[in-house]
Amino acid sequence: MTSNASLNIVTTLAVKSHNTPDEKRRPDKSEIDLVTVGDYTIGRLTFEPGWRWSECIKPVAGTESCQNNHVGYCVAGTLEVRLNSGETATITAGDSYTIPPGHDAHVVGDEKFVGLEFLSAASFAKGD
Fold it and tell me: Total structural domains in the chain?
């Protein structure tokens, strides 16, 4: 059976605040606040200056690089992403983004990165 989320059909009216999330994850220099509305899990990711996936999330994920697919929107700060292929991109406030599996990333500068994630939030920074 196919879920409504995979069909992108919304069947319920739901509102939740990331200020009182359903789940909190707190790896090093990270705050991941998750809410589930209908069939969708949306994450607010906050990374402190000095955050780097390979240092802060890799110990939780247990993989050499991030294997999540990301679709999101940057609210604040700057994140630099480097794919295993060497391709790089910089995400700043106001940018929407997609990131394929096989990457590392780090916060640039002295401002927190705050992003909203719509695709991989349920599995990001979650151990087995």
Answer: 1
